[in-house]
Amino acid sequence: MKPVFDAAGAAGAMPASDEQPLPPHDQAPCQRPSSLELLYRAQAPKLLRMFVRRADRNDAHDLVQDSFVQLAQMAEEERAKIVKPEAYLNVVSQNILRNRARAAYHRSIMVQDDDLENRASVDITANLEARDMLKRLDAAIVKLEPKTREIFMALRLDGLTYAEVAKRTGLTVKGVEWHLAKALAALHRAAGRR
């Protein structure tokens, strides 16, 4: 079968025959678009631009769809009562943005609460570990020889210099350094460090 040409010389559709039936969707009569579809065609680009400006660009198409879904879910009688559907869609869009912002705020509060609980449990654990470490160090200091303990306390707690401690104890500065090294080694062993 040869194509049919119109007056301008362009090839047109092949004439229908019994040998080549048209698919069923081609045989259905054309329906006029619904008012909702016309509204979508007119308002979707405007809503999309608004959502791109005010929300995440990746979510903009979904937000446009959500706006129209809310309108489409209304009963036909209710939708017919809307005098200015464009204005109604704008209000719906603003409400969707508000609801998303509110939900994001509540999620952030929940995350902060979880962080506080985690920090509190970490602080309790850290406090218990620190208290245990202090007990071990205190026990190690008590076990030091009296002269070594006296030199360590004078240097680390009283803040005296090596020369002052040497003069006070009658030792040389090298002797004071030796006792301090001995005390520090004992404390490192008690703390679990070698």
What does this structure look like?
The chain is mostly helical and 194 residues long. The chain folds into 2 domains: 33-120, Rna Polymerase Sigma Factor, Chain: A (Orthogonal Bundle), CATH 1.10.1740; 144-191. The protein has 8 helices and no strands. The chain has helices at residues 24-27, 35-54, 60-72, 76-81, 85-143, 146-156, 162-169, 173-191. α2 (35-54) runs antiparallel to α3 (60-72), α6 packs across α8 and α7 packs across α8 (173-191). The radius of gyration is 42 Å and the shape is rod-shaped. It starts with 23 loop residues before the first helix and ends with a helix. The mean pLDDT is 80.
SSE string, helices as H and strands as E: HHHHHHHH
Q: What portion of residues belong to β-strands?
A: under 5%
Q: Summarize the biggest pleated sheet.
A: none
Q: Radius of gyration from the CA trace?
A: 42 Å
Instruction: Determine the structural class based on helices, strands and strand pairing.
Output: mainly alpha
The geometry reads as rod-shaped
**Structure annotation, total helices:** 8
Average of the residue pLDDT scores:
80
CATH topology of the largest domain: the name is Rna Polymerase Sigma Factor, Chain: A
Helical amount = over 70%
N-end to C-end Cα span: 97 Å
SS elements, strand count: 0
Give the total of domains.
Answer: 2
* Residue runs with pLDDT of under 50 for 5 or more positions: none
Oligomer: single chain
The first-level CATH class of the largest domain is given as Mainly Alpha
CATH architecture of the largest domain: Orthogonal Bundle
